[in-house]
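ENTRY TYPE: paired fold submission
RECORD: A
CONTENT: sequence, then structure tokens
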Amino acid sequence: MSTLQAITLDQVVDTDRYPLSDPESPGYEAVVARARGELAEVGCTVLPDFIRPALHEVLRQECAAIAPQAYFDVETVNVYNIDVDAGLPDDHPGRRTFQRGNAFVARDRVPADALIGRLYGNGLFQRFVADCFALPRLHELADPLSGLVLNVVRPGMEHPWHFDTNEYTVSMLTQEAESGGDFEYCPHIRSADDECFDDVRDVLDGGGPPTRRLLLKPGDLQLFMGRYSLHRVSPVRGGRARHSAIFAYSERPGVIGSVARTRQLFGRVLPEHLAAEGRAVRGDRLLD
């Protein structure tokens, strides 16, 4: 039995600061208003100690226990996660390549009764996240592998500059690196209608729009507009890997990753991916 099976959401989440079950309360409205303001201004908001500090070690241990199941493969990638030989012009930012050395534990290997599994499917949590993003509701990804994952960045590795496939990224650091492993991003560097290739190229060349850095701690909840903000995890140093849970939601039901992208991230695909190929549910025409 999981350590968390016998305790309630109120015992897991600091509901004094984040009253998930009371959306009409002034406290809830204040948290949501602050989150919306920061998301609109800088594309990201962090809710410190969303998980009660007494459970931080449980959070770390549960995720550390499944981390060895991560699919690990060092790949040459670009920020769009498309073929690096896609026939792009020489000055296109997609021509810049990086070594991606992070790994993912797929959703079907995350215990449903683990803390992150319970949060991902919890209706109160989903409504709270949707409210913070100013959406009527959010849907769990229909993808059996990528809806909820654990991201593992081992010492000496990094998760280089990239954009997310899903519009709304919700994540939680579960284990800090000894040093490095910083989350860095360029807010709102592109939109659904404009790739802003020049700005992206400038960042990759070491200039361009300013880069922000977050000092995240285990148990902090991060809400992020990852489809429109270029971001990375800097190289991890020391003897401890960086672990973070990623809760992926979408405005639209039925979202399933492409066969190529799924195989890249998890080293395998399932019948659901094969069946969905060619009829992907997408809301824009961005490269990735």
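RECORD: B
CONTENT: sequence, then structure tokens
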Amino acid sequence: MKSFLVATDFSAPSREAALYAANLAKLFGAEITLLHAYLLPTPVSEVPYVMISVEELQKDNEKLAADLATSLHQQTGVSVKTLVNIGMPADEIVYQSKELSADLVIIGMRGENKAIDKFIGSTTAAVIRKSHIPVLVIPAGNQYNGLSNLTYATDFSYTMNTRCLKTMGLLMKKHPEANLHVVNIQRPGEIMSAEQISGKVWLEPTLEELNHQYHTIENPSVEAGLESFLAKSPSQMLIMVAHKHSWWERLVSGSHTREMVYKAHIPLLVLQDKD
């Protein structure tokens, strides 16, 4: 991985995510592009007020981006570029990731239960849904200190393209002592189907060079099952694949994607299998 696109709104959580990204980029020898996408303020009151010009707003945001880039470079030595555009954040993030041929999108996530975070959550969910490259979501309070345990949640879908697991493999190889926990959530009393058994056999060659263990968890809820496993087996990253399959559809139906991002208090890496 040589190019990371890091979305920022200059909040404390997004700055934490940017520092996490910079330390990860240092490990890979990758370059970072900081992207700040913003919307023009819209008057919501009849009370007259002085509105800042577009030029001033752009200049202020560019300075904030430049200051953050300088700070990241001073702390990690990583090369950091900046990009400040007017536009819908999720759309800009996805578009610029394609334009820059980025290998990974990294975005921060604030804590839950605050009204403003519902918008941030929607932006993150939209990026996950629209992106065709891996998306790494960093919840507030996380710092990169290496990876010793990673959890890969899967339904053993053998129809997916194993190339989407490339990023997971690269992370593991950069952390040769790390363990990969391959977790499958089954409904109580449910047994693996012939398709799932075939999928597990089909997946094994992709994982054979990685330190990995298989775990089967019985729980009617994918989210609750993963929460329970992570509580007992702490990991530094949760990995999932976004693809059109029954298990993923169970997860992303309704507001489940946003809930999973909130509940996963560790970084969540979403790999893409959409083509």
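NOTES ON RECORD B: The radius of gyration is 20 Å. The longest helix spans residues 54-76.
STATUS: closed
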